[in-house]
Each structure stands twice: as structure tokens, then as C-alpha cells.
Request: fold
Amino acid sequence: MTEARITHVGGPTTLIEAAGWRLLTDPTFDPPGRRYSFGLGTSSRKTAGPALEAAELPPLDAVLLTHDHHADNLDTAGRALLPGVGTVLTTPSGAGRLGGNARGLGAWTTWRLESPGRPTIEVTATPARHGPPLSRPLVGEVTGFALRWEGQRHGALWITGDTVLCAGVRKVARRIDVGTVLLHLGGVRFPLTGPVRYTMTAAPALELCAQLRPHTVLPVHYEGWSHFQEGLEGIEAELGRAPADLRARFRRLTPGVPLELPV
Reply:
């Protein structure tokens, strides 16, 4: 059975080591304390630093960047490491902004990571919507990624990206056999836009996971920034109300501590 080793660096940033590959999601390595603009008069302060520094990372084969235009998914230090990576997969608009080694994937398109002596990883971009209906012109383009390679027993490894529960995200459950989910949560809200949410809370995430029925669910991106409205306590409270078989699929990642799991 194929094993994967996943290390949560902090926020959305994880190091995925599987099938001889090393992949990094959404690089964020700035120290805490700085406030960043998110556009349209909104901002957020980083409240926690990374569990690992960028210099402590092993050589990386690729970066999976769900979007490049918000600092909680790509900050200054994270941006600095991109040129040293073989391939950066991101949204089409993000690839246009980044240039160089960035490659843009539209929803449901696939990129193959290939190297002699290692199984090919098929990376399929999945839909995401970073806010309410019709918000994309304001909040920008976001993607998720589903990773498949030979030898997986439970199904694809899916990174949801920053998204609310929407029709495009639900399609993943119908089109892809998902085994492991890196689930972006946090229930992002800003004072300027009131009750509008820009990422999932635990309640809609549990609804999604009930459709997916994955082997393992790994929540990420719910802490470390002032714009998150639902942290670990709220997530665990919602989990406590979930059916036991669904609750048992969730695993907690401890920042900086690798977790080995079957995939």
C-alpha cells in the first residue's frame, strides 16, 4: 500500500512526500505580525509563523499554488522560493502574473509530473469559488488540485483550495474517487463585508465529506491569520455532532510534525 508523508508547515502550507516526489502547497513563510492588504479595503494580520523555515525544506519538485494574489496563500518569503522549484502549478491568471516556471491549469485540466524512476503524478485542477456567487471578479481565481498516481489504494489526494461549498466543489465527489482531503477551512469573513464568507466552516465541510466519503480528512488553513472566524475549537465542536463514521475520518495535523498515512 502506498504511503504519503504530510507535514503541516502552517496555514495552507503543507509538504507532501509521496511516490518519491516532494510537493509543497501554498508557500507561506513570513514571520507573524505583519498586516497584508487583500483588496477592496480588506486586510488581515498574520498571527503565527511557520513551523519550518523555507531554508529547512528539502529540495522540491513542484509547488501547488491554489492562488497567488492573497498573502495567506503566497507571502513574500513563499514567493521568493518559487524560482528554485521545478514547476509551479496554479490558476491560468496566476501563471500569467508569475511567469517563469508557473503553469496555469483551468478546471478539470491535468498536468503530468514525470521523472525517470518515479511514478507519474497526474495533477488535475478542480473548481473552487473563494466567496459568494458572482464574486470571482472581486476575489479572483482559485483552484484545487487532485493528485493521482499508480499504487494508490484509497483514491486521489485532493487539496480543496480556499473555497466555499458550491456546485463546482460538489462535482469533485461525482467525478473523482477521493481518498485523502487537505481541507481548507476557517470560515473567512471581513468586517467590511459583514456575514459574507469566503471559505468553508466545518458544517458545510462535513456535508461535502459525507458526499466524498474519503479515507482521511486533514483540516488546514483555519489558524494563523486574523481573518479566520472558526478555529480548531469550533471545528472540533462541529465534529462532535457528526456521525461517528464520518468523525473517524478526520485526523489532526500538528505543525512541523510529519504524519504518515496510507493513500
The mean pLDDT is 96. The helical segments are 76-81, 92-98, 136-139, 167-175, 202-212, 232-240, 244-247.
